[in-house]
Amino acid sequence: MCMVIFAPIFAICAFATCGGYYGHLQVKVDCAARRHNNVSINIDFGYPFRLQQVYFKAPLCEAKREEIVFLNGDFSAAAQFFVTVGVLAFLYSLLATIVYVFYQNKYLKNNRGPLVDFLVTVTFSLTWLLSSCCWAKSLTEIKTATNPTEVLLLISACREKENRCAATQEPFWSRLNTSAVFGFVNVILWSGNIWFVFKETGWYKTGQRYPSRTSSRKRSSEMREQDSFTEPRGDFDKQVQRQASINQSQVSFSLPETYLGKSVVYERENKIASQGPVIFVNEM
């Protein structure tokens, strides 16, 4: 959802601020011979920053004629690469938004949509990083090539000490600086979106459903250690039970046995004799 909302906006801001840039530089040449006084020179440049094709006419103080001066440097490769990545990222963001909203079922079918989205997101993250770094480096070189001090050194009249040259207007770099900042913002945005797209793929679900081999091996080793710990204890309990059964078998408990004998007549003095059975107790 974060990519759907912000990716097209930041992509537009990145390539629009770079592709629509227009710079203007103005210098003034004042010759000591008074043949050319306060001559203003306007130098215009812009995207794609082929500065070697930008030229202007500068006066020659020793004669009534002019020279054609070209700027130095060709930075079109980095600038066009940056703009191309921004345009493609914008188009893909719009396409992804349409798929997410109207074709969600087809997007999730057979897990092809998330896999393609994941690969494209990783690709755009890398290309944004590469193009932003190249563009930031080229922007520094463009500022150096269009620096008034460097431009005045290209003019023959300004290399002579008796003539006076100065810059009356310098280019504004805030727009190009903003484009470089938006480039790195897109790097962060697309790199952070990798995780959210990865969660929709089957790779993430497979990793959650099935534990890794290392964890399963660890659990099996722990179970084996527990079994090895419980087995000796179980054997010890069995031995105790066997010893107890042996002792019980060896020790016999018997009650005294009784039986009836023949009747015996007991005689007492001056009393009648009584008869009855005699009880014998056999103690063990």
Automatic annotation (TrEMBL):
Belongs to the synaptophysin/synaptobrevin family. It comes from Fundulus heteroclitus (Killifish). This is Synaptoporin b. Residues 1-202 form the MARVEL domain. It is found in: Membrane. GO terms for cellular component: synaptic vesicle membrane. The keyword Disulfide bond does not apply. Residues 219-234 have a biased composition (Basic and acidic residues).
